[in-house]
Amino acid sequence: MNVLFSVLSLISAFIGVGTVLLWFRYIKKRPVFLETDSSNNGVIYPALSVIIPACNEEESIEQAVRQLISQDYPNLEVIVVNDRSTDNTGAVLEKLKVQYPQLKVITIYDLPPNWLGKNHAVYQGVKEATGEWLLFTDADVMFSLGSLKKTLRYALEHTLDHLTIAPDLYYGGVFYRAFLTYLSFAITATVMFTNKVGVGAFNLVKKSVYQEIGGYEAIAMRVADDMSFGELVVNKGYKQDFGLSGKGFIIVKWYDNLFALLKGIKKNQFAHFKYSVVTTLLICLYALLVGVYPFVGIFLGPIWARALCGVSVISLFAVYNYLAKYLNISRSYVVIHPISVLLYIGAILNSMVKTISQGGIEWRGTNYPIKVLKKHIRWTKE
Questions:
Q1: Is residue 381 one of the residues assigned to a domain?
Q2: I want to staple 248 with a disulfide (CB 3.0 to 4.6 A). Which of 35, 51, 305, 340 is the partner?
Q3: Are the C-beta atoms of residues 119 and 219 closer than 8 Å to each other?
Q4: Which family is this protein grouped under (predicted)?
Q5: Are residues 273 and 312 in the same domain?
């Protein structure tokens, strides 16, 4: 058994510590947007259209719209697409439209074939947009004052075509925030290797680039539309950057609790891996080896193998220590890291099994066959 533990420790340390070192090199190059005052420095801001798809968002849409319109950004229009809502979203939007002339409301009653609901809503919103830049966001995203100016200024100064930002979503109980911390680490580690990313809370793109790459029509049936849009930008040769929101800069209350989060991400985890069973299982094996085994291996095998696992755990602590400087988390969450990994593996496998057994996914009351979803992935690649 000592031979087995030694081999596992060697592989785990090599891959795990290597991933962490690469992650630090990558993350330190990423901009962190903080909630601080900054001068305009004579910047001429281009017209900006913010597009929000909204389906049954009566609880959050009013606050989201008011926070956006209260921004000090010149030449701003806000477009909310009411996508077949069955609650009071429409009534709330009609009230807001009377108060704010810069608010446009589009109402969708039916979903045409070969479209996912959110993707179609964004597509319709862009058709009404007049801005030189487009910002795709969600109905539960809250923007701090000055955040639009700061992000547009960054995009202009760095001659970007597309800027996407991971929001501040660290709230709730210890296990919930610990899981979100691990999820952020896992996502940024994935992006580090692909260099292609999009985040649904904040996708800022030049309208001319959006049109050149085919827009949301090109990803009409892509479940992970935000990531798919980011991939499309890079694949077409345009310049992209990925940043992080500091505490309070861009805030999202994603789900009410950990159970709801694990249930909610069931829809898109298998989609992130292009509905490939082999890829999904390899990712799970990698997560087990790198994220769980070191915490077990420090008690198993010869002393040097235990020491290697200790080094792996220390490297993960360094990640949490770094993130704690900018996010509303504790570095002590590293203790819960293996539990978070196991929960995430469970969510991935649940997504894969449910998608395959049901022959597709159900989203916002509409069923989408997996054969159709896979076909549209191939079309996007072509």
A1: no
A2: 35
A3: yes
A4: Belongs to the glycosyltransferase 2 family. CrtQ subfamily.
A5: yes
